[in-house]
Amino acid sequence: MAQTAPTPTLTPGAFTAAVSAITNAFGDPTRRAIYLFAHEHERDRGVTAAQVAERFGLHPNVARHHLDKLAAGGYLDVNVERSETGGAGRPSKRYRAHDEQVTLSVPVKTDDLVLTMLGRALARLSPAEAEAMAEEVGIEYGQAMAAGLAGPDGVAGGQRSFRAALHAVADALTAHGFAAHTEKRGNELRIVNNHCPFGAAAIENPVICAVDRGMVKGMLASLYGDTEPETAASLPHGDEVCVTSF
Q1: Rounded distance, CA 76 to CA 99, Å?
Q2: Contact status, residue 208 vs residue 192, Cβ threshold 8 Å
Q3: CA gyration radius for the chain?
Q4: Between the CA of residue 227 and those of 137, 179, 215, 219, 230, what are the distances in Å?
Q5: Which class is domain 12-97?
Q6: Tens-place pLDDT, residues 56-107
Q7: 52 vs 175, residue with greater confidence
Q8: What pTM, to 2 d.p., does this model score?
């Protein structure tokens, strides 16, 4: 009887690399829309930078940059077409989506028992004490995470603009299962988490959300400097996403 080969164990480093690759290719909302446009239109011949520029109101060079990013990640194929008239103009590049869907089949698992125990332990404290302790734990963990986020010169802290630090924090949160991205809303910068890896434990004990805020605070303190993030929305409180604002 044939035996099925065991599924290879995904190491934390491999998971982080996979998430980083997806984030690099699809972290920009315009690039995501361009990928879908290429996937849903002109499947036989592909799309050109000029078509993408016209569709999304972009400069052709910007459209080409997004398309090349997607092609470099292996999400689009590139074909070069020369002019049928034999002229000396620049060959036209056509970008065509693969038939395969882009997936990241990496289950993000959490230890439900540990989270449940954490929630019950925090519930024995007063609300103020529980929130302070949860945030302190998050800060310490965030600082440890930031230690592995080296800057352009190999130094983790003090070498980033606030916005660059915020992007680094969002990427780190995504690697830990939060599906996070940054956005600007008026004069406010925000980190938006589309997924809560704490699951039901956070719904039963929303004070656990202070851990998220602490992680952001700890990472930013190491990468940029002291900040005062505020929880503006929370999945456990019934909101559609979790939002940390600045």
Answers
A1: 10
A2: no
A3: 22
A4: 17, 22, 12, 10, 10
A5: mainly alpha
A6: 888 888 888 888 888 877 788 888 766 555 555 556 788 888 765 555 444 4
A7: 52
A8: 0.54
Q: Residue 146: what residue type?
A: A
Do the domains spanning 12-97 and 112-245 agree at the CATH topology level? Answer: no
Contact 208, 221 (CB under 8 A): no
How big is the CA angle at 97 (ends 94 and 99), to the nearest 5 degrees?
140
Q: Which residue has the tokens 């999304």?
A: 56
Confidence class for position 215, pLDDT limits 50, 70, 90: very high
Residue 226 has pLDDT above 70, yes or no: yes
Q: Which structure tokens are listed for 73?
A: 């990640």
What SS3 string covers 47-112? ECHHHHHHHHCCCHHHHHHHHHHHHHCCCEEEEEECCCCCCCCCCEEEEEECCCCCCCCCCCCCCH
The burial class, CB within 10 Å (0-12 / 13-18 / 19+), for 143 is buried
Mean pLDDT over residues 96-122, rounded? 65
Give residue limits of the domains in the chain.
Answer: 12-97, 112-245
Supply the CATH classification number for the domain 112-245: 3.30.1380.20
